[in-house]
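*** Residues and shapes ***
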Amino acid sequence: MSDSKNKDIDPKQARIDRLMKTDWYRWYALGVLVVVYASSHVDRQIMGILLEPIKTELGASDTQMGFLVGLTFAIFYATLGMPIAMLADRTNRRNIIALATTIWSGMTVVCAYVGSYGQLAMARIGVGIGEAGSSPPSHSMISDLFSQKQRATAMGIFALGINIGLLIAYLGGGWMSDNWGWRTTFIVVGLPGILIAILVRFTMIEPPRGASEETAQAKAEAPKFREVARTMWQTKATRHVVFGSALAGFVGYGMTLWLPAFFVRSHGLSQTETGLTLALMSGIVGGLGTFTAGRLADHLAKRDPRWLAWVVALGKGGLVPFVIAFFWLTDLTSALVVYLVPAFFAGFYLAPTFAMIQQLVPVQMRSVAAAICLFLLNIIGMGLGPQGVGILSDVFADEYGKESLRYSLMVFSLLNIWCAWHYFLAARTLKADTQRALDLQAAQG
């Protein structure tokens, strides 16, 4: 009898069950996903530090460069994220992430061999296509690895991949650009992604869906895209979180991809000096802020779950006077001291937003829900943010000359107030809408 029982046990499933019960594996898996996310942001944000030398060699305008670092990447990244997320809700998420990492890393290397602006735009589209397959499956896997009580912290650690990526892109990219040129820089930052893809494929497992939920989740078929979109639209908190994050991305990506050019033009820094400055600010100070937001949100949400949204609202609204002062000041040292505050709070929206989206929909909708949120965040933020900054800088150029970028970025920073308002509105119905998602999950089970 015992022999027949043993034959019925799937050795692969038994291994997965054992690993899912161990703390070390959950944190290891999260660590690998952070490395993946960091790699994607190195390959994505390296364009910021290389923007000036590429612009000079290719003879492009700020509007053209805004299009290159924004829409050419974002349209494919954001749009393809949704069908890939639907696939991720039905198939193996680990394998999707491994394949996506291989594609974007290879296309980053291709950027080194382009001969024109058009060819570089096509290569960046390839990077965007690859990166579309990473974040939604990662969000879904993290939600299956960590319970709701730990999820904002886990998402905060995951979001550190952005700051780690910025740190590497700015610090390494600035030095490599000055010493090796922008083409070699693309090769050096692209190749490690191939090794990371191998690490994902052969050391991670696909966690059971709903494994971290406190109540047992009945297996339900993954819904169609239209159903997920309708569920999100009908939920007030979800609407405000999605729109708020899109505004945060609009300002954030515009700042991130144009700040290197701002330091070169307005403060006369070299590429190496710019890279070091932004690595310290966006990488280290920003990373502390991103992690703090997740931990603080989890801690305060134990008293009142609305703090998940309030933390973001206070952070994004409170940084506005400081970022205005940063662009107003012409003395570099004074400006950098003031910028410590915006650098810390810039990524405050990431972890709470990712956590709220995951808790506001049923388990089987999570990858697609994350993709819809990321679609708007990236098409509005990454696509239109850098493009908008570039256009406004060209508009201001006749009056302000090389300082046009300073005033363009200053105007964009005011939109943080609108972003904060959406998160305040989201807090009003967050508790009721979270319960609604649980009730919907139970009904579908």
Notes: Residues 26-199+220-444 form a domain with the Growth Hormone; Chain: A; fold (CATH 1.20.1250.20). The CA atoms of residues 237 and 430 lie 5 Å apart. The radius of gyration is 22 Å. Residues 23-58 form the longest helix (36 residues).
